[in-house]
Amino acid sequence: MAGSTLGTMFKVSTWGESHGKGIGVVVDGCPAGLTISEEYIQTYLNRRKPGQTKYSTPRKEDDYVEILSGVFEGRTTGTPISMVVMNQTQRSSDYSEIANYYRPGHADYTYDSKYGFRDYRGGGRSSGRETTARVAAGAIALAILDSLNIHVSAYTRSIGPITIDYTNLNLQNIMQSSLYMPDLNASAKAEDFLLEKMNESNSVGGVIECVVTGMPAGIGEPVFEKLDANLAKAVMSVGAVKGFEIGDGFKSASMLGDANNDAFHYEDGTLSKETNHAGGILGGMSDGSNIILRAAIKPTASIARTQHTVNKANKNIEINIKGRHDPIIVPRAVVVIESMVALTLVDLLLQNMASRLDKIQEFYKN
Amino acid sequence: MAGSTLGTMFKVSTWGESHGKGIGVVVDGCPAGLTISEEYIQTYLNRRKPGQTKYSTPRKEDDYVEILSGVFEGRTTGTPISMVVMNQTQRSSDYSEIANYYRPGHADYTYDSKYGFRDYRGGGRSSGRETTARVAAGAIALAILDSLNIHVSAYTRSIGPITIDYTNLNLQNIMQSSLYMPDLNASAKAEDFLLEKMNESNSVGGVIECVVTGMPAGIGEPVFEKLDANLAKAVMSVGAVKGFEIGDGFKSASMLGDANNDAFHYEDGTLSKETNHAGGILGGMSDGSNIILRAAIKPTASIARTQHTVNKANKNIEINIKGRHDPIIVPRAVVVIESMVALTLVDLLLQNMASRLDKIQEFYKN
Amino acid sequence: MAGSTLGTMFKVSTWGESHGKGIGVVVDGCPAGLTISEEYIQTYLNRRKPGQTKYSTPRKEDDYVEILSGVFEGRTTGTPISMVVMNQTQRSSDYSEIANYYRPGHADYTYDSKYGFRDYRGGGRSSGRETTARVAAGAIALAILDSLNIHVSAYTRSIGPITIDYTNLNLQNIMQSSLYMPDLNASAKAEDFLLEKMNESNSVGGVIECVVTGMPAGIGEPVFEKLDANLAKAVMSVGAVKGFEIGDGFKSASMLGDANNDAFHYEDGTLSKETNHAGGILGGMSDGSNIILRAAIKPTASIARTQHTVNKANKNIEINIKGRHDPIIVPRAVVVIESMVALTLVDLLLQNMASRLDKIQEFYKN
Amino acid sequence: MAGSTLGTMFKVSTWGESHGKGIGVVVDGCPAGLTISEEYIQTYLNRRKPGQTKYSTPRKEDDYVEILSGVFEGRTTGTPISMVVMNQTQRSSDYSEIANYYRPGHADYTYDSKYGFRDYRGGGRSSGRETTARVAAGAIALAILDSLNIHVSAYTRSIGPITIDYTNLNLQNIMQSSLYMPDLNASAKAEDFLLEKMNESNSVGGVIECVVTGMPAGIGEPVFEKLDANLAKAVMSVGAVKGFEIGDGFKSASMLGDANNDAFHYEDGTLSKETNHAGGILGGMSDGSNIILRAAIKPTASIARTQHTVNKANKNIEINIKGRHDPIIVPRAVVVIESMVALTLVDLLLQNMASRLDKIQEFYKN
């Protein structure tokens, strides 16, 4: 069935395969009057682009986004915004070998199980390259949030065993670190660790953390469309993500009630919480404090080591995946997680406008 | 906006407040021809019912389910199945006090922020009592899965610091343990821990694990409607859940690629994996091995200890929540998680039927 | 698949069969703060109730609506509103005969084709009795519209060959006519015609017209979610409706462009149209003038005349449907059409709130 | 809100403005294994292309479709199919004048009302040019139907006052008539009528009829997702459509019950109906006989005659729309209606697969 569309009010539909003609996205439901440009979208795509540092694949991907519709005289018109990144080079030949077996940790086998065959070139639709389209859409969502004074910042929390020290955390550092770690000390250690594992032809995982500031209280719809439930779905829909947490997450499972509850406090005309174990969400709705979430990313599945697998003729074989691949997905996925969070927030902010009759009456009075 | 409906093909809509006239659910899209009865649904509700053991609230809730539509001569007709559990007693008076302040860890403040006021009786719509409706719907989903030889088993993995030992794990034990722990040794220790914390008027969290056997490969829709993304949303939509993992989850973030990849293997006419770090899902689709997931549950928010909070007049106050509450949510939530997993699987199994033209042609040939 | 839910923001899910335990509806996404009561809903149900005049079935249906959730202290809370009309009497025995053959003009054959069997008692789910639930939900939508000064009036335009004369049209007359015709002259003639056909054991069709006043301009979403497209779907989803028109409808197909276009005009601070051939909708959005639509209703399928059909053993048989049935559906369907229009308008009014960034910014500033 | 997506299982999202960079569509949920090519899609686009006859605008639109994703080695892969028709020339200058006033019968005023401003070039998003994208998607739906032996044929039933004579109707003639009328006699008369009105700088409307053969019984979901309700929405979403009928449609409103009911008949192993007043749909589901529907198309709104309207400065003005426009929309809309019908049928055929447990069990047994 159709699975490439996200959102209800703010609807994002991606398309494209790794080695097809291009990757694209249609954003439908974007409010009219938002200023955007190809240059603005491009700055987000550049954060995801490979070949930026020695920790990402040296494959050259010159991803230039083109806006094909929905923007007139620099502003969104309220109609669908179609964006496309054409593939510069389509080299299918390199992938003839992997057409015949199932790479461990990849979606080759499951695509074949579902559809009977697959576009095997570079992973086809299951390639991380699909996230280019998500980032282009995410840039639009982030611009909307920005206009509402809501800010989303994702960064690398840990790489393998190396975790940031929150006393060293400085969000200004994110862009200084080639691994997008806001603790430059930890970043340096993580680089060493990563180089060591790269030299062993192995790959590494990590955790991405994301903080949202400025969210008004009451966003998210009770029961099944809770804010945290929607964030979980959006984040878990990113390829290599294996876990999701909000606030204290799994740690809260071993906490006691008196330590886990966040006391409310009123001062200087503002209600706030003394702590934020809940990660900014109570009963599935934002509570006005910062939203904090984490995503666990598994190590890259493609490694240049001998692995066991099965080919399409049902033979047990040994393989050695050629080509150079990212030894870690985490840094490039940071902007993807940021995008997924932004897309979710915008959708729920728009849904929330219909919650109260008095506000609806006021809206239609003007 | 409307947030009380889950699913696309198999659509579940719950309604009702803790202390209203009743709690109910409409299941639309249930295939025709399934044998169900009120007695069958009731067995699932009984697993969620309070007052069963000393670790749950002694409140008496005689939850009897009634099927109002969609079943004729013992079988589902394909039309909506409406089920209701009427509340036996509606005592609003007990809750007059909490009407005026925001309980820490609860949704009081966020409901007021969103809607301008709230049904404060027993938590209203945000009460865990709403999950009664999910379990009734889940029982139907579990019956469909059973008819397809797919089985879902949830159990308590940990209570506070006490975790089951997988060498002692025996799924037959789940029902022997009053905490639904499949390791009776751990269960006994957890009971002691729980009693100790209850005596200190505190509350405890834990982790629920769920295993699915018999899933065919290829279920789940690529990109945004991945199986794991949908499971995450469904599980995170349960009140006190703060984290979700699939397979090795957060642990995989600190693993190396060669250890995290599951090798494929072919033997005796069957393709399988040598390990299952992925938890049965690759590229967002089931891979034919067991699906394994976990949910982190925070400690019960209602505790009989003095807490700081704010009242509706914006005064900082001290409160002490009266009444006796579950010292732990985990055991009663086990069947809720099982239900949410089942609802998600059925929806995606039905969606998957439209994936291949040859199978559609075969379907309509008969 | 699930087909009993209508709407995106304002979501209505009906359930129940003609001779089951009851009929009900869950309204999810109703804004908080609307004043409603069972008495208010009941006034709408009474307009649909049979046995009111000699032109409707003398079957006694004492339909009393009960609100089970979503209303607290007389106001909607923003959470699902569950309403139920329990069936007073469940007499299945009367329907044993029709279990075995397919009534012409009814859904017996198509239900069996789809589901393999059917609840044959009184038409089961396909019975017009399901519209009780729509009217209960419609009453809520009409209350919301009323609070926004938008008014929906449906009435009988024609019965068989007798059509109202617009020079005699007076909306105040609707309730004076037992056929809900706003031209009492035509109403009297239609009554005569109807009695004549009743005496011949035949049945009669007609056309219902609906006028909406007070709609702001710009409601409806371009392309597939146009206002007229959604109205068409909602109206055509009512059992016996075979045609739908907006404005001049089919007549416009034989008009010339200069006669069909409505000129815009500005006077006294207001932009309006000199004519309204378009029926208040341009490009799928309301244009600020009255919305006018029509639904063609076929004659009642159940008639006490000998008819040819086929039984479940594939024998060609002659049947004579027992019991007394409405000789015409039109008058009782008037409030159903009004309800379907109201449900559609509310959903699109809520969707429209997210159209412009400046208005969203203003909304979240307060 | 997002309104440019149609369908649940088979999801079609169009984008693009008349004078933007291009028009496109993403088809998500297309079953894997369907053979399609750009050449095949192009044959459908050619039927919609202007400049084919003297009755359509002489504007040259060289619409070449390009498939950007979702097809591998000539077959659909199950992932989104992105198709684009780039605009060859983007001449905005011609449209500077209409930027400042509201054309009667067009969506200029309603777009401004909704979004605050509009892309005025050639009607922007509201242009009939958007239907190019629908036809490209429709071609895929028609190929799926073809593989299931279901055939959809739309044609012109009437042009102004000239209606086809059903005794002369021959579906083979459709392509012989430059107006797509299956009665060549009527076609010749309609051509004369059209030329006459063109010379008077006026425009003409008409009725399109569509017949579907080969539909299995039981397709369509009861209550709100009825087959006829979905067809109505899909057809009414096409720009100039003002009315929709199924079977006898508005005529049935003046028929008597005994004449309107279709008797069932069994012969030679097949159940059929003696007549088809119902147009192939009973209770919202296909009944196995031909589906027959009609759409009323208003005369083209753009005419080269003096018209009254209002400009953006709220002045009453006289205008005379320049450029040459189609004097009639009907012939070019025939393939659009065919497409909308096909898209709806495919979506409901796929949804229907989940109706019965025994068929689901059989599906998953293999």
Automatic annotation (TrEMBL), chains A, B, C, D:
Gene Ontology biological-process entries: amino acid biosynthetic process; aromatic amino acid family biosynthetic process; chorismate biosynthetic process
Note on how the cofactor is bound: Reduced FMN (FMNH(2)).
Alphabetical UniProt keywords: Amino-acid biosynthesis, Aromatic amino acid biosynthesis, FAD, Flavoprotein, FMN, Lyase, NADP
Annotated Pfam families: Chorismate_synt
Spans through the membrane: none
MF-aspect GO terms: chorismate synthase activity; FMN binding
One GO cellular component, as annotated: cytosol
Biological or metabolic pathway of the protein: Metabolic intermediate biosynthesis; chorismate biosynthesis; chorismate from D-erythrose 4-phosphate and phosphoenolpyruvate: step 7/7
Cofactor: FMNH2
UniProt EC number: 4.2.3.5
Record-listed NADP(+) binding positions: 48, 54
Enzyme class: lyase
Quaternary state and interactors: Homotetramer.
Database matches in HAMAP family: Chorismate_synth
Family per record: Belongs to the chorismate synthase family.
Stated name of the protein: Chorismate synthase
Organism this protein belongs to: Anaerosporobacter mobilis DSM 15930
Taxonomic path: Bacteria, Bacillati, Bacillota, Clostridia, Lachnospirales
Gene coding for it: aroC
